[in-house]
Amino acid sequence: MPAPPPTIRLRPVFIVMALGCSALFLLGPLAAAVVVVIFAPVDVSMYLAPGMIGFAIIMAWVMSSSVQWVELDDGVLRARKFLTRKIVVHRVRDIVTVEPLNSNLMGPMENALADRMMGASNRGYELRFRDGSKLGLARGDMKGLDEFLKVLAAEIAERCGPLDA
Asked: Rounded distance, CA 153 to CA 164, Å?
């Protein structure tokens, strides 16, 4: 029996958090918009309801990049999107760059604190593909990331040679 392909998975605590955030930030504003349309005066609901629906749409767009798992099998990366359950397939040879994840929104003190909490200054990587798509692999979120990255690095070296990272 062949060994299963190297796979990283979203940690269970993050699955629970993602489900809670989905309910709070997607279903909550939509339910509130319905309540506002039914019970609020028209001059109030005509502003609030579209804003709430717009907020839910933006949150769905932001959350749509999250993945539940990623596997590497014979030069092919497969990832299951958390929100849509869609399986996205990329070839390793289509990776253009591998960029470290960092937060430009936080200052030096906040970044240092986050590094201290995670025990490393490396928070993960973003794989960028030839077609312009991206795949984020976050150290804190994904179980088994370090081992997966070693296998991926060997696969990239074998199939692509050096990258721009």
From this structure: 13
